[in-house]
């Protein structure tokens, strides 16, 4: 691309931008004096909470900049029944049955918590961050310019990044921090290379995490999950036809089930497109396939039948990989037959997972074999195969990333992802029904059914965060006077402030009726809350946070943790994997 073409484009944009901005500013000017006085609206209702936001007799003005009109309204204060008041903000928490690895919060401060509350320690909180994220937001003008450059010169977003022209022009996603060695998938955007539908789909899939629970773009946690795998159909042709109540048109497959060959010429691309869709969505109705493939549905239907006649799909819809942690309900926790061994990979991350290094791990019985519920929560290792940190990512970039990114360090230290088989008999639910109610310590958690001794009530889940982040989040804990941090070891804690199960509502008692146990399940630490004795429906679940919690709460010196894993979970560098497993399984909080 010649520099002069770029300069022309930039100048065009600049003159347009000047004119546009001048007009926009003009439109913001005050309405002229000789306008009719603004109409007065009926009094507007303002809901009054504990702190009135408005006073009787106040007015406010609504200015419509576009139509240059103004209206004025009196404020009327309405008292509402306290039970209709909004929930306290601390209750906002995303429900999640599993832990999410966060590591550290980003260095730029994404937003300022309690910004309208002068009692919050803003200075202390600010000091935890390097910059304000909003100071570094991409300029929308530059984004517009970069979009135009891409379309005019047929460039990908990555080309723009690489060229760095004009200065400051970057793609929208560029401000997201990618792990070292990664590049934007758009760099290889198939739409520029004329790749076929299969390749395009594979590449597009790189933009998304394969774990449907994961909301992270460029997810590095679940990257070892397989990309796209063919799925076998689960319904017959007849069922498909019966599920379509009426024909979608004169070319509908319902009306034209003849054996005549498909007349229209289908290009190789068309055929591949249909096959790719059928691989991923074999139960799709021909009428839907017709829309995707832009072909009459009877043709699609016929080719669909021909395709499955050749490809002979397996009868049942089987997942392409054995179920893993992510695929399981907590109720299916175990009995596990966890299989771990070592992959001795030269290309792996430096300092390989020490859980995996001494494989194979000998099978060991669960600690309390008679106690079914407890047993279900326990993982034990046996046997052969390894998936442990296997080089199964998405190409070289992903592998390079593994060696460097902090997330991978967590995985190296704590996770030895392993194949697990779930015993089909393990069907009984592991969790007890619970509900959250008001208590003298804020909210608390109560049993909705009787529980036996040593039953798993529920899991305590949250974000897995590193110590520096527990410290920065501690300002919020202090301000709220509520903490949801459960320490796993000196480096990592589970924080259920923003994400987790109802386990976060469990209050402390020095004579508890439950305890929290950490189990190493399929390579991940999971915290289960178990009953210490038989409990009646309606009992509040309580565990002992340990002495340091309230000490630190009072001193304000240290991050307070509702649970602290002692000793064994502070994993020494040379811990042997088998003792590690045992210790993890036995360690109580
Ligand atoms: C994990 S949360 C428990 C749920 C909390 N009650 C709520 O409303 O969200 C821990 C917080 O609950 C409060 N808490 C729990 N047990 C307590 C106790 N025995 N005495 C005083 N405060 C307690 C403290 O504020 C503590 O920081």
Structure description:
28% of the residues lie in helices and 17% in strands. Residues 47-51, 172-177, 316-430 and 565-589 have low confidence and may be disordered. Among the domains are: 237-310, no CATH class; 434-552, Beta Complex (Beta-clip-like), CATH 2.170.270.10. It has helices at 3-27, 122-127, 140-153, 157-163, 190-193, 197-205, 237-242, 268-280, 286-293, 297-311, 372-377, 395-404, 406-414, 467-480, 547-555, 577-586; strands at residues 40-48, 59-64, 69-79, 94-95, 100-103, 108-109, 131-132, 336-339, 381-382, 419-422, 434-439, 442-447, 456-460, 463-466, 485-487, 492-495, 499-500, 507-508, 514-521, 524-531, 542-543, 563-564. The N and C termini lie far apart (63 Å). The chain has 589 residues and is an alpha/beta fold. It contains 16 helices and 22 strands. Bound molecules: S-adenosylmethionine. Residues 441-444, 481-484, 504-505, 507-509, 562 line the site of S-adenosylmethionine (SAM).
